[in-house]
Structure formats: C-alpha cells, structure tokens
C-alpha cells in the first residue's frame, strides 16, 4: 500500500457570506482533516462595482464590515471543527486577489462554492467559480 502524500498542504477558501461558500468551507475542513492541510480563508471586497463616487466610501465600509463578520463566522465554524485558519480581508477584483493570494501563500487547492450571493452581482462581475476554473494557478474544487 502506498503512503498518502500531502498533495494539499495549503487550502484557500474564498468566502462571500453565502450558504454556498459555507458548504465549501465545510468541505475544505474535511479535506484539511484528511490531508493535514493548513486552511486560509479570504473575503475580497469588490471595488470595481459601478457606484456613485460620493457613496463609495460608505459602501466600501459596509462591505469591509460584512467581510469581517463573514470571516469571524467562518473562523467559528473552523474552530468548532478543531482547526485554525489564517484570515485575509483583501480589496480589489475578486478573482485577481484570489490568484495573488494563491501565489503568495503557495496554495495547492482552492475550494469554492458554485454560486455566490446574488444574480445581480453575478451578472455584473461574472461567476467567480467559472473565472477561477479558467484562470486558477492551482487545483480548484467547486462545491455544489
């Protein structure tokens, strides 16, 4: 019998506060248990949405607060599963920021939900999971 090698030393889980990203987080915890992986969770504040310049500062503050709450909730789930995770709050284009984190943290796997928070955002930005499937520099698991 061959010994199980750790193919997934670092697993990145992008979060958006949706039930789909929570399902991805739970799956990432399962994989981390099997592969003895380190978990990294990230929330990216999307800055490219077209909004009125006067509202921009308030809008970004709301998104940052939501992102911090999303990461706190995720850390609670991870802790209950017996893990610790590195949390990252980034600002910028979601896919570009995820790709930067994958490279800088040397991630071996991204675990992402197949849908996000809403149809309007998906229409404006495109599906993050679809873009990652095309552009990701590492393996990608899309959780349904």
Notable traits:
144 residues, alpha/beta, Rossmann fold, five-stranded parallel β-sheet, 50% helix, globular
Explain the overall architecture.
It is globular, with a radius of gyration of 15 Å. The protein starts with 9 loop residues before the first strand and ends with a strand. A 5-stranded parallel β-sheet has the order 3-2-1-4-5, sandwiched between helices. The chain has one domain: HUPs (Rossmann fold, 3-Layer(aba) Sandwich), CATH 3.40.50. Helix content is 50%, strand content 23%. It is of the alpha/beta class and 144 residues long. Helix 1 links the parallel strand 1 and strand 2 (38-46). The mean pLDDT is 86.
Structure described in brief:
With 144 residues, the protein is α/β, with parallel strands linked by helices. It has 5 helices and 5 strands.
List the helices and strands and how they pair.
Layout: E1 10-15, H1 19-35, E2 38-46, H2 53-80, E3 85-92, H3 94-105, E4 109-113, H4 119-125, H5 128-135, E5 139-143
Parallel strand pairs: 1-2, 1-4, 2-3, 4-5
Strand content: 15-25%
Determine the N-to-C terminus distance. 32 Å
Mean residue pLDDT: 86
Per CATH, what is the topology?
Rossmann fold
Could you describe the largest sheet, including whether it forms a barrel?
Answer: 5 strands, parallel
Order of helices and strands: EHEHEHEHHE
**Count of individual domains:** 1
CATH superfamily: HUPs
**Structural class assignment:** alpha/beta
């Amino acid at each position: 019998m061959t010994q199980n090698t750790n193919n997934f030393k670092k697993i990145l889980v992008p979060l958006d506060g949706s039930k789909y990203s929570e399902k991805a987080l739970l799956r990432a915890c399962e994989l981390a248990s099997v592969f003895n992986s380190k978990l990294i969770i990230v929330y990216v504040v999307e800055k490219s949405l077209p909004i009125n310049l006067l509202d921009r500062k308030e809008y970004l503050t709301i998104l940052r607060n939501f992102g911090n709450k999303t990461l706190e909730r995720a850390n609670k789930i991870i802790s209950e599963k017996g893990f610790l995770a590195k949390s990252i709050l980034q600002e910028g284009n979601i896919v570009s920021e995820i790709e930067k984190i994958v490279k800088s943290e040397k991630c071996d796997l991204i675990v992402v939900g197949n849908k996000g928070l809403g149809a309007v955002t998906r229409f404006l930005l495109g599906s993050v999971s679809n873009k990652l499937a095309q552009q990701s520099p590492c393996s990608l698991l899309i959780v349904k």
